Amino acid sequence: MDAKLLDILVCPLCKGPLLYKKTASELICRPDRLAFAIKDGIPIMLEDEARRIPDEEEIK
Predict the structure, then answer these.
(1) Residue 27: its pLDDT value, please?
(2) Domains recognised in the chain with CATH numbers
(3) pLDDT for the residue numbered 5
(4) How large is the greatest C-alpha to C-alpha distance in the chain, in angstroms?
């Protein structure tokens, strides 16, 4: 994932910062508890495509 791209990407819902999880190939929005997949180096920033993070799953 390009570092410059990571600096400008924000959550499409709350416009907050995203946490990059390299091992899971995801961008995480902590407040909205959403995980946006990264496929072939391209982040899929659609709410309908995002994985909802359950309350019991810890976000690090």
Answers:
(1) 97
(2) 3-52 (2.20.25.10)
(3) 87
(4) 32
Triad 3, 31, 58: Cα angle to 5°? 85
Q: Three-class SS of residue 4?
A: helix
Question: What is the model's pTM?
Answer: 0.90
CB 38 within 8 A of CB 27: yes
| Six token digits for residue 47 | 């709410």
The residue written with tokens 């309350």 in the block is: 55
Length of the chain equals 60
